[in-house]
Task: structure prediction
Amino acid sequence: MKGAILREPGSLVVVDDLPEPPAPGPGEALLAVRRVGVCGTDLHAFHGRQPFFSYPRILGHELAVEVLSVGASVTHIRPGDLCAVRAYIACGACDACARGVTNACERLTTLGVHVDGGMRERIVLPAAYLHPAPGLSPDAVALVETLGIGAHAVRRGAPDATDRVLVVGAGPIGLGVATFVRARGAEPVIADLVPERRAVAGSWGGYRTIDPADEGPAAVRAVFGGELPTVVFDATGSSVSMHASLDLVAPGGRLVYVGLFTGDITFHDPDFHRRELTIVASRNATAADTEQVIAHVRAGGVDAVPWIGERVALDAIPEALPRWAGERGSALKGMIELPG
Ligand SMILES: [Zn+2]
Ligand SMILES: [Zn+2]
Result:
C-alpha cells in the first residue's frame, strides 16, 4: 500500500510498497485513512527540530479514519464508521494513568512522532483511541485532534462569562482555544504578531484582535476597558511571547501555557506573588475533551471549511509539506485527502 515516509530530516518520500497492516487483534481496529491534517509538529519533524523524534518515521497524527474491520471485544465501533483518533497512546500502567491523567502518561507515545502515524492508506490502532463521529465530514473529523488541544486548555484555564480572556497566538491551536472559550460564555480577544492571522481570526471567527507588538500591556489594557485579562492562554510556543504573557495577567488571574518550547521560563518572583498568579500547563487532550469536541462540532459550533488552507493528495505531500514549512503566518491547515 501507499504511504509517506520521512526517511531523515528533509527527505520525505511516497512509496507504494508499504506492508499491509495485519488483521486487527483483540481490542484493535483496521482503518482506512481518509484525511490527515498537517501541523507544526510535522513541520518540525521534517526540519529535524522535533525533540524525542527518530527516523525513519511515518508522520500523521490528525486523522479521520473509516473502520474497515474490528478485532474481538470491540463493540463501540463497526465497519463504515468515520472516527476521530486520540493520538496519544497511554501505557495504562503508570501512576498518571491510574489517576486518570492519561494525557500526561509517564510513558506516552504519540502517533506520528514516537510510533508510525497515519500518512498511509491503512493502519491498525487500539479501538479505545477511536471516537466515532456520526454526521461529521471527514474534514471536520480531521480537525478534532487540533480542537481537542484547545478544549483541554480551556478546561485547564476554566474561564467563565465573568472573565476577561486573552488568547495569544492565532494559529489553529489558538483559534481552537478561542472556540471553546466562547463555548463557556466568555468573549476572547486574540493577539498575534502576524497580520494575516489576525485577519483570519477577525473575518471568520468574528474575534476582536490586537497586535501585541504595538504597545504590549498597554494595547491589551486598551481592549479590556483599561484592565488586564483575568485568563490568558498562550498558544504560541514562543519563548519571547511566553515571557511577555506573564505581564499580561490581572491580579488573581490564570495563565495557561498551551504551546511549549525547549528552554526555561523565568519570572521575577515579586511580580508573580504580588498578583497571586496561577500558571498552569496544558498538554494533549483526554477522551472527555475529544468527546466534547465532537459534540460541539455536531451541534454546529465549528465549521471545518474555513480552517483548511490547502488540500493535497498523498502523492503531493513531498512537494507540499516543505512548502508549508516555509510559509510563515498562515493560520490555515494543510490537509491530505485520501480517496474513500
Ligand atoms: Zn498536530
Ligand atoms: Zn501511563
Summary: The longest helix spans residues 138-157. Residues 90-91, 93-94, 96-97, 105-107 surround zinc ion (ligand 2) (CB under 6 Å). The chain has two domains: 3-137+304-337, 148-281.
